[in-house]
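Q: What structure does this chain adopt?
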Amino acid sequence: MNKKILLFVLLSTGAWVGTQAQSRRIDTVAVAILDKMSATIGDLGSCSVNVNANYDVVSRELGLIKHSDEEQVYLHGPNKLLVRSEGDKGTRSFFYDGTALTYYSMDKNQYGQIPLSVGVVEMMDTVNKRYGIDFPVADFFYPTFVDDILSDAKSLVYLGMTKVGNEECFHIAGVAKDKTFQFWIRHDAFFLPAKVVIVYTEGGQNRQFEATLNDWQVNPNLPDAIFSFTPPPSASKIALVALGNRAPRKVSRTGTGKK
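A:
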């Protein structure tokens, strides 16, 4: 996407792009806002953010059951990531130092490791496809974020200004083949995401994912040591089982792009 789109010109014109055959409506204002957000995140040397997520899990007996997690995300450079999570999935962490991804369950004092020497984005994609491991709001960190949305979207609309908490935000909504989605992007110098809601319409269950992103820190000084894992006393090492070696399940990133 062209990251030099003049946002304020587009906000004044409110232009649309579409195809008559499929009535595909793509609002260039929405595209410009998402482009600005994606460009900012792509230029960060490091960042941290707190993510409060609520999501549905399908129960054959009870239908959709709501769960929640609170996660702290720390990203440094192209190949370091730390995620600390507390919630219905337990208290756990993911450490990636550029050479291996380590999963640690504080509740069970167990850890497992996957050797990898790639960038953070490729690491998240690889372990999601092979092991079914999801990372909070991972799609925002993909350089192809906007292109992925546009490749799948039937419509993408800028709805105007609204508030998330006390912060003014751009409100964007869209529809894809198997989901609807909404983004709230902060109206400040950085255009960082404040909230996301996704409704998965495939199968008629309408599972929902909702997350708020708070306390963004831009280019903080994050020491390399926090991304490395040292096993606590008496911790036991476990094998992380790939999806192909267990009962199959459908896997996708938590987001609106390609599966």
